[in-house]
Amino acid sequence: MEQVLDGVQLVLVTHTHRDHWDDAAIQLVPKDLPLLCQPEDLKKMEAVHFVNASAVHDMKYWSHICVTRTPRSTAQERLRAPWRLPADTC
Fold first, then answer.
1. Are 86 and 68 in contact (CB under 8 A)?
2. Pick from 62, 26, 61, 59: which is nearest to 45 by CA?
3. How far apart are CA 30 and CA 41, in angstroms?
4. 3-state secondary structure of 44
């Protein structure tokens, strides 16, 4: 697993369902790595000692990347991730 995380500079947690964010991830991801999450998940990240966690309310810049939160409202939209990385629109 350490090889998978080698070189990772940022973690984006789109949601905390167990198929995306489980106990193994909580244990293995370095606690000082920058981590972006949903506003409602920030306290969960802080509770497990991620010291550089921050919530994406609407838009958040990290390095040269702009992360924009987009709502989902229908079953069709739920098939797509609630995040996009639109480098040219931020």
1. yes
2. 26
3. 18
4. helix
